[in-house]
Design a protein that fits this description.
The protein has 214 residues and is α/β, with parallel strands linked by helices. Helix content is 31%, strand content 32%. The structure holds uracil.
């Protein structure tokens, strides 16, 4: 089997992304603003993650004359948030790709083995015919993200991209070692994981901040 080339990390450095991420990191940003910022950042990252979508030319009539325009022609999209924090990113993708089908992947960590265990998976039946956009705001150890990619591939997906807000180098390394074919689109690659598995400097617990549970 020919080895798969590792996809480069796409770190989006647009000033709007930097600005919004800075607000997101600020511990004084309240839940409502945090949620809105996650939505806006995801929209900007989706723009980048889909920039190589195939298009075709079609002829249309403008009110003035006949002309040729571009239409997206490639595979349709399945957007798959990893529960729970990935849910906060869902609307950002759907506001750009309203026809996408949505799948959900729920994983928890077995505290003895530290391995991710799935507790809920519901994917579009035709996922094999779709490009998957996997949503996980924090690529920390990369274990649950790697498991989620595996779940998508076992369901037939051939093309998976991860959209994350913040990634740790450890998580990138782990994901790339398990799934080198997965493109990772991220707003920032941070310094490291701390001993509790939080990304530093990071933004804290994304799920708690999104849903106000702490
Ligand atoms: N999950 C989070 O929500 N935050 C981190 O820093 C790491 C994992």
């Amino acid at each position: 089997m020919t080895p798969v080339a590792t996809q480069p990390i796409v770190e989006v450095t647009h000033p709007l992304v930097r600005h919004k991420l800075g607000l997101l990191r600020d511990e004084s940003t309240p839940t409502q603003a945090f949620r809105q910022l996650v939505n806006e950042l995801t929209l900007l990252l989706t723009y980048e993650a889909t920039k190589d979508m195939a298009t075709e030319e079609v002829e249309i009539e403008t009110p003035l004359e006949r002309t040729t325009v571009q239409r997206i022609s490639g595979k349709k999209v399945a957007v798959c948030p990893i529960l729970r924090a990935g849910i906060g990113m869902l609307d950002g993708v759907l506001s750009l790709i309203s026809g996408a089908r949505v799948g959900f992947i729920g994983l928890y960590r077995n505290e003895e083995t530290l391995e991710p265990v799935e507790y809920y998976v519901k994917l579009p039946a035709d996922i094999a015919q779709r490009d998957v956009l996997l949503l996980d705001p924090m690529l920390a150890t990369g274990r649950s993200t790697g498991a989620a990619v595996k779940i998508c591939k076992e369901a037939g997906a051939e093309s998976v991209r991860l959209i994350a807000l913040v990634a740790a180098p450890e998580g990138i390394e782990h994901l790339q070692s398990e799934h080198p074919d997965v493109t990772i689109v991220v707003a920032a690659v941070d310094r490291e994981l701390n001993d509790k598995g939080y990304i530093m400097p990071g933004l804290g617990d994304a799920g708690d901040r999104l849903f106000g549970t702490k």
